[in-house]
Amino acid sequence: MPAPASRYPDMHARSIRDPEGFWREAARAIDWMSEGERVFDAALGIYGRWFPGWTTNVCHNAVDRHVEAGRGPQPAIFYDSPVAGARRTVTYAELKDEVSLLAGLLRDLGVGKGDRVVIYMPMIPEAMFAMLACARIGAVHSVVFGGFAAAELAGRIDDAQPKVVLSASCGIEPSRVVSYKPLLDLALTLATHKPQACLVFQRPQAEATLTPGRDHDWATRREQARAAAMRAECVPVEATDPLYILYTSGTTGKPKGVVRDSGGYMVALRWSMAGLYDTRPGEVYWSASDIGWVVGHSYIVYAPLLAGCTTVLYEGKPVGTPDSGAFWRVIEDYKVAVLFTAPTALRAIKKEDPEGRLMADYDRSSLRTLFLAGERADPDTVEWAKARLGVPVVDHWWQTETGWAIAGNPVGLGALPIRVGSTGVPMPGYQVDILDEGGHPTVPDRMGSIAIKLPLPPGCLPTLWRQDERFRDSYLMDFPGYYKTADAGFTDATGQLFIMGRTDDIINVAGHRLSTGGMEEVLAAHPDVAECAVIGIHDALKGEVPCGFVVLKAGVARSPADIEAEIVALVRERIGPVAAFRLAITVNRLPKTRSGKILRGTMKKIADAQAWNMPATIDDPAVLDEIAIALNARGLAKSSAA
Asked: Could you tell me the pTM of the whole model?
Protein backbone atom coordinates (compact mmCIF):
# COMPACT_ATOMS: atom_id res chain seq x y z
CA MET A 1 0.00 0.00 0.00
CA PRO A 2 1.59 3.34 -1.01
CA ALA A 3 2.45 5.82 1.72
CA PRO A 4 0.00 8.71 2.02
CA ALA A 5 1.10 11.95 0.41
CA SER A 6 2.86 14.40 2.69
CA ARG A 7 0.86 17.38 3.93
CA TYR A 8 4.01 19.47 3.67
CA PRO A 9 3.53 21.23 0.29
CA ASP A 10 0.13 22.65 1.20
CA MET A 11 1.20 23.57 4.72
CA HIS A 12 4.37 25.37 3.66
CA ALA A 13 2.56 27.22 0.88
CA ARG A 14 -0.06 28.40 3.35
CA SER A 15 2.61 29.59 5.82
CA ILE A 16 4.06 31.84 3.12
CA ARG A 17 0.73 32.98 1.68
CA ASP A 18 -1.03 33.59 5.02
CA PRO A 19 1.62 33.67 7.76
CA GLU A 20 -0.63 35.30 10.36
CA GLY A 21 -3.36 32.72 9.86
CA PHE A 22 -0.88 29.85 9.91
CA TRP A 23 0.88 30.89 13.11
CA ARG A 24 -2.36 31.89 14.85
CA GLU A 25 -3.52 28.34 14.36
CA ALA A 26 -0.18 26.94 15.59
CA ALA A 27 -0.42 29.19 18.66
CA ARG A 28 -3.46 27.24 19.87
CA ALA A 29 -1.03 24.62 21.22
CA ILE A 30 0.24 27.20 23.73
CA ASP A 31 -1.48 28.51 26.88
CA TRP A 32 -1.85 32.31 26.75
CA MET A 33 -2.79 34.62 29.59
CA SER A 34 -4.10 37.13 27.07
CA GLU A 35 -4.17 37.37 23.28
CA GLY A 36 -3.42 40.42 21.19
CA GLU A 37 -5.22 41.59 18.08
CA ARG A 38 -2.34 40.90 15.69
CA VAL A 39 -0.12 37.87 15.18
CA PHE A 40 2.57 39.91 13.41
CA ASP A 41 3.26 43.64 13.31
CA ALA A 42 5.70 44.71 10.60
CA ALA A 43 6.05 48.17 12.16
CA LEU A 44 7.65 46.89 15.34
CA GLY A 45 11.31 46.04 15.85
CA ILE A 46 13.79 45.78 13.01
CA TYR A 47 11.78 43.59 10.65
CA GLY A 48 8.56 43.17 12.67
CA ARG A 49 7.57 41.27 15.83
CA TRP A 50 5.48 38.15 16.39
CA PHE A 51 2.54 38.03 18.82
CA PRO A 52 2.71 41.65 20.01
CA GLY A 53 0.34 42.30 22.90
CA TRP A 54 0.03 38.58 23.75
CA THR A 55 1.05 37.50 27.27
CA THR A 56 2.17 34.09 28.49
CA ASN A 57 4.75 32.30 30.63
CA VAL A 58 7.22 29.77 29.24
CA CYS A 59 7.66 27.86 32.50
CA HIS A 60 3.91 27.44 32.87
CA ASN A 61 3.74 25.94 29.38
CA ALA A 62 6.76 23.68 29.92
CA VAL A 63 5.94 22.48 33.45
CA ASP A 64 2.81 23.61 35.33
CA ARG A 65 0.20 22.92 32.70
CA HIS A 66 1.35 19.30 32.38
CA VAL A 67 1.01 18.80 36.14
CA GLU A 68 -2.45 20.37 35.99
CA ALA A 69 -3.35 18.04 33.11
CA GLY A 70 -2.41 14.94 35.12
CA ARG A 71 1.13 14.36 33.88
CA GLY A 72 2.68 15.00 37.31
CA PRO A 73 3.88 11.40 37.80
CA GLN A 74 5.36 11.21 34.27
CA PRO A 75 9.14 11.53 34.01
CA ALA A 76 10.08 14.94 32.64
CA ILE A 77 13.86 14.40 32.75
CA PHE A 78 16.02 11.28 32.59
CA TYR A 79 19.44 12.41 33.82
CA ASP A 80 22.20 10.00 32.86
CA SER A 81 25.86 10.68 33.67
CA PRO A 82 28.37 7.95 32.92
CA VAL A 83 31.18 10.36 33.85
CA ALA A 84 29.73 10.92 37.34
CA GLY A 85 28.26 7.44 37.72
CA ALA A 86 24.87 9.01 38.44
CA ARG A 87 21.29 8.66 37.24
CA ARG A 88 18.17 10.50 38.27
CA THR A 89 14.55 10.62 37.15
CA VAL A 90 12.68 13.90 37.67
CA THR A 91 8.90 13.77 37.24
CA TYR A 92 6.89 16.77 36.09
CA ALA A 93 5.58 17.20 39.65
CA GLU A 94 9.12 17.13 41.05
CA LEU A 95 10.26 19.52 38.34
CA LYS A 96 7.57 22.01 39.32
CA ASP A 97 8.62 21.70 42.96
CA GLU A 98 12.32 22.27 42.25
CA VAL A 99 11.76 25.11 39.80
CA SER A 100 9.27 27.02 41.94
CA LEU A 101 11.67 26.77 44.90
CA LEU A 102 14.65 28.00 42.89
CA ALA A 103 12.55 30.78 41.38
CA GLY A 104 11.61 31.90 44.89
CA LEU A 105 15.25 31.80 45.90
CA LEU A 106 16.26 33.90 42.89
CA ARG A 107 13.59 36.41 43.78
CA ASP A 108 14.97 36.50 47.34
CA LEU A 109 18.40 37.29 45.84
CA GLY A 110 16.89 40.33 44.14
CA VAL A 111 16.12 38.93 40.68
CA GLY A 112 12.97 40.24 39.05
CA LYS A 113 11.27 40.48 35.69
CA GLY A 114 13.68 41.58 32.97
CA ASP A 115 16.81 41.06 35.09
CA ARG A 116 19.54 38.88 33.62
CA VAL A 117 20.98 35.72 35.17
CA VAL A 118 24.12 34.02 33.84
CA ILE A 119 24.11 30.22 34.13
CA TYR A 120 27.58 28.64 34.04
CA MET A 121 26.93 24.98 34.74
CA PRO A 122 27.55 21.42 33.57
CA MET A 123 24.95 18.98 32.25
CA ILE A 124 23.09 18.36 35.50
CA PRO A 125 19.37 18.70 36.31
CA GLU A 126 20.01 21.85 38.34
CA ALA A 127 21.06 23.64 35.14
CA MET A 128 17.62 22.94 33.66
CA PHE A 129 15.96 24.00 36.91
CA ALA A 130 17.89 27.27 36.64
CA MET A 131 16.72 28.04 33.12
CA LEU A 132 13.10 27.27 33.92
CA ALA A 133 13.23 29.21 37.20
CA CYS A 134 14.35 32.31 35.31
CA ALA A 135 11.50 31.85 32.83
CA ARG A 136 9.06 31.44 35.73
CA ILE A 137 9.74 34.93 37.14
CA GLY A 138 10.36 36.66 33.81
CA ALA A 139 14.15 36.91 34.23
CA VAL A 140 16.36 36.60 31.14
CA HIS A 141 18.88 33.77 31.34
CA SER A 142 22.17 33.56 29.51
CA VAL A 143 23.74 30.12 29.59
CA VAL A 144 27.50 30.08 29.10
CA PHE A 145 28.99 26.70 28.25
CA GLY A 146 30.47 25.17 31.40
CA GLY A 147 34.25 25.37 31.49
CA PHE A 148 34.41 28.33 29.10
CA ALA A 149 37.59 30.35 29.54
CA ALA A 150 37.50 33.11 32.16
CA ALA A 151 38.05 35.96 29.68
CA GLU A 152 35.19 34.75 27.49
CA LEU A 153 32.90 34.39 30.49
CA ALA A 154 33.86 37.89 31.67
CA GLY A 155 32.94 39.36 28.29
CA ARG A 156 29.52 37.79 28.46
CA ILE A 157 28.99 38.98 32.04
CA ASP A 158 29.86 42.54 30.99
CA ASP A 159 27.47 42.36 28.03
CA ALA A 160 24.51 40.74 29.80
CA GLN A 161 25.08 42.52 33.15
CA PRO A 162 23.47 39.80 35.29
CA LYS A 163 22.22 40.38 38.83
CA VAL A 164 23.10 36.80 39.77
CA VAL A 165 25.36 34.04 38.44
CA LEU A 166 24.35 30.40 38.91
CA SER A 167 27.24 27.95 38.77
CA ALA A 168 28.58 24.61 40.00
CA SER A 169 31.84 23.57 41.56
CA CYS A 170 32.95 21.52 38.57
CA GLY A 171 32.25 19.77 35.34
CA ILE A 172 33.42 16.25 34.54
CA GLU A 173 35.21 15.16 31.38
CA PRO A 174 36.04 11.50 30.65
CA SER A 175 39.66 12.00 31.72
CA ARG A 176 39.51 14.90 34.18
CA VAL A 177 37.48 17.07 36.52
CA VAL A 178 37.22 20.72 35.44
CA SER A 179 36.91 23.10 38.38
CA TYR A 180 34.52 25.88 37.41
CA LYS A 181 34.77 28.10 40.46
CA PRO A 182 38.36 29.33 39.87
CA LEU A 183 37.34 30.22 36.30
CA LEU A 184 34.27 32.05 37.58
CA ASP A 185 36.31 33.88 40.24
CA LEU A 186 38.82 35.04 37.62
CA ALA A 187 36.02 36.08 35.25
CA LEU A 188 34.41 38.18 37.97
CA THR A 189 37.78 39.82 38.65
CA LEU A 190 38.19 40.62 34.94
CA ALA A 191 34.61 41.80 34.41
CA THR A 192 33.69 45.44 34.89
CA HIS A 193 30.14 44.48 35.86
CA LYS A 194 29.86 42.87 39.30
CA PRO A 195 26.84 40.61 39.96
CA GLN A 196 25.16 40.94 43.34
CA ALA A 197 25.42 37.24 44.15
CA CYS A 198 26.59 33.82 42.97
CA LEU A 199 24.72 30.61 43.79
CA VAL A 200 27.06 27.59 43.61
CA PHE A 201 26.02 23.94 43.39
CA GLN A 202 28.64 21.76 45.10
CA ARG A 203 29.38 18.49 43.30
CA PRO A 204 31.15 15.70 45.21
CA GLN A 205 33.96 15.48 42.64
CA ALA A 206 35.33 18.92 43.62
CA GLU A 207 34.32 21.33 46.34
CA ALA A 208 34.41 25.05 45.56
CA THR A 209 35.65 27.72 47.94
CA LEU A 210 32.92 30.31 48.45
CA THR A 211 33.58 34.05 48.74
CA PRO A 212 31.82 35.39 51.86
CA GLY A 213 29.18 38.00 51.17
CA ARG A 214 28.89 37.17 47.47
CA ASP A 215 28.68 33.40 47.11
CA HIS A 216 25.89 31.18 48.41
CA ASP A 217 25.78 27.42 48.77
CA TRP A 218 23.00 26.09 46.53
CA ALA A 219 21.94 23.19 48.78
CA THR A 220 21.89 25.29 51.95
CA ARG A 221 19.84 28.08 50.39
CA ARG A 222 17.50 25.54 48.79
CA GLU A 223 16.69 23.98 52.16
CA GLN A 224 16.18 27.43 53.67
CA ALA A 225 13.80 28.28 50.83
CA ARG A 226 11.88 25.04 51.35
CA ALA A 227 11.58 25.64 55.11
CA ALA A 228 10.27 29.15 54.45
CA ALA A 229 7.90 27.98 51.67
CA MET A 230 9.72 30.43 49.44
CA ARG A 231 8.03 29.49 46.17
CA ALA A 232 7.38 31.69 43.17
CA GLU A 233 4.41 31.42 40.84
CA CYS A 234 4.59 32.01 37.08
CA VAL A 235 4.43 35.70 36.17
CA PRO A 236 2.89 37.03 32.94
CA VAL A 237 5.40 38.22 30.34
CA GLU A 238 4.90 39.78 26.93
CA ALA A 239 5.34 37.35 24.06
CA THR A 240 7.92 39.79 22.71
CA ASP A 241 9.88 39.88 25.98
CA PRO A 242 13.25 38.11 25.84
CA LEU A 243 13.44 34.61 27.28
CA TYR A 244 17.19 34.31 26.93
CA ILE A 245 20.40 35.66 25.44
CA LEU A 246 22.72 33.12 23.82
CA TYR A 247 26.16 34.20 22.68
CA THR A 248 27.30 32.68 19.42
CA SER A 249 30.41 30.53 19.57
CA GLY A 250 33.73 31.73 18.28
CA THR A 251 32.96 35.43 18.41
CA THR A 252 35.77 37.98 18.48
CA GLY A 253 35.61 41.43 19.99
CA LYS A 254 32.33 42.41 21.66
CA PRO A 255 30.18 39.30 22.25
CA LYS A 256 27.26 38.78 19.89
CA GLY A 257 24.21 37.93 21.98
CA VAL A 258 21.33 36.34 20.09
CA VAL A 259 18.00 37.38 21.66
CA ARG A 260 15.17 34.84 21.81
CA ASP A 261 11.66 36.06 22.50
CA SER A 262 9.18 34.12 24.61
CA GLY A 263 5.96 33.66 22.63
CA GLY A 264 7.07 33.06 19.07
CA TYR A 265 9.77 30.68 20.26
CA MET A 266 7.26 28.49 22.07
CA VAL A 267 4.92 28.41 19.09
CA ALA A 268 7.69 27.41 16.68
CA LEU A 269 9.19 24.77 18.99
CA ARG A 270 5.82 23.21 19.77
CA TRP A 271 5.00 23.02 16.07
CA SER A 272 8.37 21.43 15.30
CA MET A 273 7.99 18.64 17.85
CA ALA A 274 4.91 17.37 16.04
CA GLY A 275 5.44 18.56 12.46
CA LEU A 276 9.18 17.98 12.04
CA TYR A 277 10.24 15.42 14.66
CA ASP A 278 6.93 13.50 14.82
CA THR A 279 7.15 13.20 18.61
CA ARG A 280 4.08 12.81 20.78
CA PRO A 281 3.40 13.65 24.46
CA GLY A 282 4.72 10.99 26.81
CA GLU A 283 7.44 9.78 24.43
CA VAL A 284 11.15 9.98 25.16
CA TYR A 285 13.08 12.50 23.08
CA TRP A 286 16.86 12.68 23.28
CA SER A 287 18.94 15.55 21.96
CA ALA A 288 22.56 14.49 22.50
CA SER A 289 23.90 18.00 22.78
CA ASP A 290 24.75 20.42 25.60
CA ILE A 291 22.55 23.07 27.16
CA GLY A 292 25.31 25.61 26.40
CA TRP A 293 24.41 25.48 22.71
CA VAL A 294 21.23 26.42 20.90
CA VAL A 295 20.33 22.77 20.28
CA GLY A 296 20.41 22.19 24.02
CA HIS A 297 18.27 25.24 24.74
CA SER A 298 15.67 24.30 22.17
CA TYR A 299 15.66 20.49 22.18
CA ILE A 300 16.98 19.36 25.55
CA VAL A 301 15.11 21.91 27.65
CA TYR A 302 12.23 23.77 26.06
CA ALA A 303 10.71 21.87 23.12
CA PRO A 304 10.42 18.40 24.71
CA LEU A 305 8.88 19.87 27.87
CA LEU A 306 6.51 22.11 25.92
CA ALA A 307 5.34 18.97 24.12
CA GLY A 308 4.86 16.96 27.32
CA CYS A 309 7.66 14.55 26.42
CA THR A 310 10.42 13.09 28.55
CA THR A 311 13.82 14.60 27.73
CA VAL A 312 17.17 12.87 28.23
CA LEU A 313 19.92 14.94 29.89
CA TYR A 314 23.12 13.03 29.08
CA GLU A 315 26.42 14.00 30.68
CA GLY A 316 28.78 11.91 28.59
CA LYS A 317 30.34 11.41 25.18
CA PRO A 318 29.46 9.24 22.17
CA VAL A 319 32.72 7.31 22.69
CA GLY A 320 34.88 6.77 25.75
CA THR A 321 32.11 6.79 28.37
CA PRO A 322 32.82 3.93 28.43
CA ASP A 323 32.89 2.91 24.77
CA SER A 324 31.29 3.51 21.36
CA GLY A 325 28.13 1.69 22.45
CA ALA A 326 27.15 4.50 24.85
CA PHE A 327 24.39 5.95 22.64
CA TRP A 328 22.80 2.56 22.03
CA ARG A 329 22.82 1.84 25.78
CA VAL A 330 20.95 5.08 26.49
CA ILE A 331 18.38 4.26 23.80
CA GLU A 332 17.75 0.86 25.39
CA ASP A 333 17.65 2.10 28.98
CA TYR A 334 15.15 4.90 28.38
CA LYS A 335 13.24 3.62 25.35
CA VAL A 336 14.23 6.64 23.27
CA ALA A 337 11.85 7.22 20.34
CA VAL A 338 13.70 10.07 18.60
CA LEU A 339 17.42 10.82 18.74
CA PHE A 340 18.91 14.11 17.56
CA THR A 341 22.69 14.35 17.42
CA ALA A 342 25.54 15.83 15.39
CA PRO A 343 27.13 14.00 12.45
CA THR A 344 30.47 14.35 14.22
CA ALA A 345 29.17 12.09 17.02
CA LEU A 346 28.26 9.41 14.49
CA ARG A 347 31.63 9.76 12.81
CA ALA A 348 33.34 9.26 16.18
CA ILE A 349 31.30 6.10 16.76
CA LYS A 350 31.96 4.88 13.22
CA LYS A 351 35.69 5.43 13.65
CA GLU A 352 35.81 3.25 16.77
CA ASP A 353 33.26 0.64 15.67
CA PRO A 354 33.12 0.75 11.85
CA GLU A 355 31.05 -2.46 11.62
CA GLY A 356 28.60 -1.33 14.31
CA ARG A 357 29.16 -4.50 16.33
CA LEU A 358 28.31 -2.87 19.66
CA MET A 359 24.86 -1.95 18.36
CA ALA A 360 23.91 -5.61 18.55
CA ASP A 361 24.41 -5.59 22.33
CA TYR A 362 21.45 -3.27 22.90
CA ASP A 363 17.72 -3.23 22.19
CA ARG A 364 17.14 -0.26 19.88
CA SER A 365 13.61 -1.20 18.87
CA SER A 366 12.13 1.94 20.46
CA LEU A 367 14.09 4.22 18.11
CA ARG A 368 11.91 5.53 15.31
CA THR A 369 14.00 8.30 13.69
CA LEU A 370 17.53 9.69 13.87
CA PHE A 371 17.95 13.43 13.17
CA LEU A 372 21.29 15.06 12.38
CA ALA A 373 22.38 18.72 12.45
CA GLY A 374 25.31 20.91 13.45
CA GLU A 375 27.81 19.89 10.76
CA ARG A 376 27.42 18.74 7.19
CA ALA A 377 26.15 15.16 7.21
CA ASP A 378 28.33 13.44 4.63
CA PRO A 379 26.46 10.78 2.64
CA ASP A 380 28.83 8.00 3.74
CA THR A 381 28.02 8.55 7.42
CA VAL A 382 24.29 8.85 6.71
CA GLU A 383 24.29 5.57 4.76
CA TRP A 384 26.36 3.88 7.48
CA ALA A 385 23.86 4.86 10.17
CA LYS A 386 20.83 4.02 8.07
CA ALA A 387 22.12 0.55 7.20
CA ARG A 388 22.98 -0.36 10.78
CA LEU A 389 20.15 1.30 12.69
CA GLY A 390 17.40 0.42 10.25
CA VAL A 391 15.55 3.71 10.79
CA PRO A 392 15.25 6.89 8.69
CA VAL A 393 18.26 9.20 9.08
CA VAL A 394 17.07 12.78 8.59
CA ASP A 395 19.52 15.61 8.10
CA HIS A 396 18.28 19.10 8.84
CA TRP A 397 19.78 22.57 9.04
CA TRP A 398 19.47 25.59 11.31
CA GLN A 399 21.50 28.15 13.21
CA THR A 400 21.94 29.64 16.67
CA GLU A 401 20.16 32.69 15.30
CA THR A 402 17.06 30.85 14.11
CA GLY A 403 16.49 28.72 17.23
CA TRP A 404 14.84 25.90 15.25
CA ALA A 405 15.12 24.25 11.86
CA ILE A 406 15.29 26.31 8.69
CA ALA A 407 15.07 23.18 6.57
CA GLY A 408 14.42 19.51 7.23
CA ASN A 409 12.23 16.56 6.31
CA PRO A 410 8.87 17.07 8.10
CA VAL A 411 8.33 13.50 9.30
CA GLY A 412 5.23 14.46 11.26
CA LEU A 413 3.48 15.73 8.12
CA GLY A 414 4.35 12.61 6.17
CA ALA A 415 8.00 12.16 5.29
CA LEU A 416 9.23 13.29 1.90
CA PRO A 417 11.69 11.12 -0.04
CA ILE A 418 15.10 11.38 1.64
CA ARG A 419 17.84 12.58 -0.67
CA VAL A 420 21.16 11.77 0.96
CA GLY A 421 23.27 14.92 1.02
CA SER A 422 20.23 17.21 1.26
CA THR A 423 19.03 18.97 4.40
CA GLY A 424 15.45 18.73 3.17
CA VAL A 425 12.97 21.47 2.41
CA PRO A 426 12.20 24.82 4.08
CA MET A 427 10.10 24.62 7.22
CA PRO A 428 6.90 26.69 7.58
CA GLY A 429 7.50 30.43 7.49
CA TYR A 430 10.89 30.17 5.80
CA GLN A 431 11.13 31.39 2.20
CA VAL A 432 14.65 30.28 1.32
CA ASP A 433 16.28 31.66 -1.83
CA ILE A 434 19.68 30.99 -3.37
CA LEU A 435 21.17 34.34 -4.42
CA ASP A 436 24.02 35.13 -6.79
CA GLU A 437 26.64 37.78 -6.04
CA GLY A 438 24.26 40.48 -7.28
CA GLY A 439 21.53 39.37 -4.86
CA HIS A 440 19.34 37.78 -7.55
CA PRO A 441 17.71 34.35 -7.14
CA THR A 442 19.49 31.61 -9.08
CA VAL A 443 18.17 28.63 -11.03
CA PRO A 444 18.11 25.12 -9.51
CA ASP A 445 21.46 23.36 -9.11
CA ARG A 446 23.36 26.67 -9.20
CA MET A 447 25.54 27.40 -6.16
CA GLY A 448 24.95 30.67 -4.34
CA SER A 449 24.43 32.38 -1.00
CA ILE A 450 21.52 31.03 1.01
CA ALA A 451 19.21 33.79 2.22
CA ILE A 452 15.81 33.89 3.95
CA LYS A 453 13.22 36.41 2.82
CA LEU A 454 12.06 38.72 5.60
CA PRO A 455 10.24 38.51 7.90
CA LEU A 456 11.84 35.57 9.65
CA PRO A 457 9.25 33.22 11.15
CA PRO A 458 8.48 32.97 14.88
CA GLY A 459 11.31 31.64 17.05
CA CYS A 460 14.08 33.41 15.14
CA LEU A 461 16.08 36.23 16.66
CA PRO A 462 14.43 39.67 16.55
CA THR A 463 17.80 41.35 17.15
CA LEU A 464 21.10 41.10 19.02
CA TRP A 465 21.23 42.07 22.69
CA ARG A 466 21.48 45.88 22.78
CA GLN A 467 23.10 45.89 19.31
CA ASP A 468 20.38 46.66 16.77
CA GLU A 469 22.80 48.24 14.31
CA ARG A 470 25.15 45.29 14.50
CA PHE A 471 22.19 43.02 13.78
CA ARG A 472 21.35 45.05 10.68
CA ASP A 473 24.95 45.21 9.52
CA SER A 474 25.70 41.53 10.13
CA TYR A 475 22.56 39.95 8.73
CA LEU A 476 20.36 42.33 6.72
CA MET A 477 22.59 44.69 4.71
CA ASP A 478 24.21 42.43 2.11
CA PHE A 479 20.92 41.31 0.56
CA PRO A 480 18.17 43.93 1.18
CA GLY A 481 14.89 42.29 2.13
CA TYR A 482 16.67 39.12 3.21
CA TYR A 483 18.39 37.60 6.22
CA LYS A 484 21.89 36.45 5.23
CA THR A 485 22.67 32.98 6.57
CA ALA A 486 26.36 33.13 5.51
CA ASP A 487 25.93 29.57 4.24
CA ALA A 488 26.35 28.53 0.63
CA GLY A 489 24.49 25.88 -1.31
CA PHE A 490 21.83 25.17 -3.91
CA THR A 491 18.37 23.73 -4.40
CA ASP A 492 17.44 21.02 -6.86
CA ALA A 493 14.41 20.96 -9.14
CA THR A 494 12.22 19.50 -6.37
CA GLY A 495 13.11 22.26 -3.88
CA GLN A 496 15.42 20.12 -1.75
CA LEU A 497 18.19 22.20 -0.20
CA PHE A 498 21.88 21.27 -0.21
CA ILE A 499 24.21 23.06 2.23
CA MET A 500 27.76 23.01 0.94
CA GLY A 501 29.45 25.02 3.68
CA ARG A 502 29.87 28.55 4.89
CA THR A 503 30.22 31.17 2.19
CA ASP A 504 33.89 31.45 3.15
CA ASP A 505 34.22 27.69 2.49
CA ILE A 506 33.61 28.30 -1.19
CA ILE A 507 37.13 28.56 -2.57
CA ASN A 508 38.29 30.19 -5.79
CA VAL A 509 40.69 27.93 -7.67
CA ALA A 510 42.02 29.73 -10.75
CA GLY A 511 38.66 31.47 -11.21
CA HIS A 512 36.53 28.39 -10.51
CA ARG A 513 34.22 28.60 -7.48
CA LEU A 514 34.36 25.20 -5.78
CA SER A 515 32.73 23.85 -2.65
CA THR A 516 34.97 22.35 0.00
CA GLY A 517 31.85 20.54 1.20
CA GLY A 518 31.55 18.77 -2.13
CA MET A 519 35.15 17.63 -1.86
CA GLU A 520 34.57 16.43 1.69
CA GLU A 521 31.79 14.18 0.40
CA VAL A 522 34.31 12.51 -1.90
CA LEU A 523 36.90 12.08 0.85
CA ALA A 524 34.32 10.66 3.26
CA ALA A 525 33.32 8.06 0.67
CA HIS A 526 36.76 6.41 0.84
CA PRO A 527 36.31 3.15 2.79
CA ASP A 528 39.21 3.84 5.17
CA VAL A 529 38.20 7.42 6.11
CA ALA A 530 36.31 8.04 9.36
CA GLU A 531 36.06 11.82 9.04
CA CYS A 532 37.62 14.61 7.08
CA ALA A 533 37.89 18.35 6.49
CA VAL A 534 38.86 20.29 3.37
CA ILE A 535 40.16 23.85 3.49
CA GLY A 536 41.40 26.26 0.83
CA ILE A 537 45.01 27.34 1.29
CA HIS A 538 46.82 30.20 -0.39
CA ASP A 539 48.55 29.46 -3.68
CA ALA A 540 50.58 32.07 -5.57
CA LEU A 541 49.51 30.74 -8.97
CA LYS A 542 45.88 29.64 -8.54
CA GLY A 543 44.84 31.92 -5.66
CA GLU A 544 43.68 28.98 -3.56
CA VAL A 545 44.05 25.22 -3.70
CA PRO A 546 42.25 22.63 -1.59
CA CYS A 547 43.93 20.67 1.17
CA GLY A 548 42.21 17.66 2.70
CA PHE A 549 42.72 16.32 6.23
CA VAL A 550 41.58 12.76 6.91
CA VAL A 551 41.19 10.69 10.06
CA LEU A 552 41.32 6.97 9.40
CA LYS A 553 38.98 4.39 10.87
CA ALA A 554 40.17 2.35 13.84
CA GLY A 555 42.02 -0.77 12.77
CA VAL A 556 43.15 0.50 9.36
CA ALA A 557 46.68 -0.89 8.89
CA ARG A 558 47.41 0.34 5.37
CA SER A 559 50.02 2.97 4.61
CA PRO A 560 48.64 6.52 5.02
CA ALA A 561 50.61 7.53 1.92
CA ASP A 562 48.78 4.94 -0.18
CA ILE A 563 45.40 6.06 1.14
CA GLU A 564 46.25 9.72 0.50
CA ALA A 565 47.18 8.91 -3.11
CA GLU A 566 43.86 7.08 -3.56
CA ILE A 567 41.98 10.07 -2.14
CA VAL A 568 43.68 12.48 -4.56
CA ALA A 569 42.76 10.17 -7.44
CA LEU A 570 39.18 9.88 -6.18
CA VAL A 571 38.69 13.67 -6.17
CA ARG A 572 40.18 13.90 -9.66
CA GLU A 573 37.78 11.19 -10.83
CA ARG A 574 34.59 12.55 -9.25
CA ILE A 575 35.09 16.32 -9.40
CA GLY A 576 37.75 16.62 -12.08
CA PRO A 577 41.17 18.18 -12.56
CA VAL A 578 39.56 21.61 -12.10
CA ALA A 579 39.55 20.99 -8.33
CA ALA A 580 43.37 21.01 -8.32
CA PHE A 581 43.21 18.62 -5.36
CA ARG A 582 46.72 17.26 -4.80
CA LEU A 583 47.24 17.39 -1.05
CA ALA A 584 45.70 14.93 1.42
CA ILE A 585 47.13 14.72 4.94
CA THR A 586 46.41 11.98 7.47
CA VAL A 587 45.98 13.19 11.07
CA ASN A 588 44.92 11.49 14.29
CA ARG A 589 42.05 13.88 14.94
CA LEU A 590 40.50 17.16 13.82
CA PRO A 591 40.18 20.34 15.89
CA LYS A 592 36.59 20.89 16.99
CA THR A 593 34.44 23.08 19.16
CA ARG A 594 32.76 21.47 22.15
CA SER A 595 29.59 21.23 20.08
CA GLY A 596 31.39 19.23 17.38
CA LYS A 597 31.99 21.83 14.68
CA ILE A 598 35.32 21.44 12.89
CA LEU A 599 37.46 24.58 13.17
CA ARG A 600 38.21 24.92 9.47
CA GLY A 601 38.83 28.67 9.67
CA THR A 602 41.60 28.28 12.24
CA MET A 603 43.11 25.39 10.28
CA LYS A 604 43.21 27.64 7.21
CA LYS A 605 45.01 30.41 9.10
CA ILE A 606 47.60 27.94 10.34
CA ALA A 607 48.12 26.62 6.80
CA ASP A 608 48.40 30.13 5.36
CA ALA A 609 50.92 31.17 8.04
CA GLN A 610 48.58 33.85 9.36
CA ALA A 611 48.35 34.91 13.00
CA TRP A 612 45.45 33.23 14.75
CA ASN A 613 43.70 33.31 18.11
CA MET A 614 42.83 30.24 20.13
CA PRO A 615 39.09 29.68 19.59
CA ALA A 616 37.18 30.13 22.83
CA THR A 617 35.03 27.07 22.17
CA ILE A 618 37.77 24.60 21.24
CA ASP A 619 37.46 21.18 22.84
CA ASP A 620 41.22 20.40 23.02
CA PRO A 621 43.76 23.12 22.11
CA ALA A 622 46.53 20.52 21.61
CA VAL A 623 44.91 19.38 18.36
CA LEU A 624 45.92 22.62 16.64
CA ASP A 625 49.58 21.89 17.41
CA GLU A 626 49.12 18.48 15.80
CA ILE A 627 47.64 20.12 12.69
CA ALA A 628 50.58 22.56 12.51
CA ILE A 629 53.08 19.71 12.79
CA ALA A 630 51.34 17.78 10.01
CA LEU A 631 51.34 20.87 7.78
CA ASN A 632 54.97 21.66 8.60
CA ALA A 633 55.91 18.16 7.47
CA ARG A 634 54.53 19.12 4.05
CA GLY A 635 56.34 22.47 3.99
CA LEU A 636 53.35 24.55 5.14
CA ALA A 637 52.22 26.37 8.31
CA LYS A 638 54.85 28.53 9.94
CA SER A 639 52.37 30.69 11.86
CA SER A 640 51.63 30.65 15.55
CA ALA A 641 48.85 31.81 17.82
CA ALA A 642 48.57 35.58 18.17
From this structure: 0.86
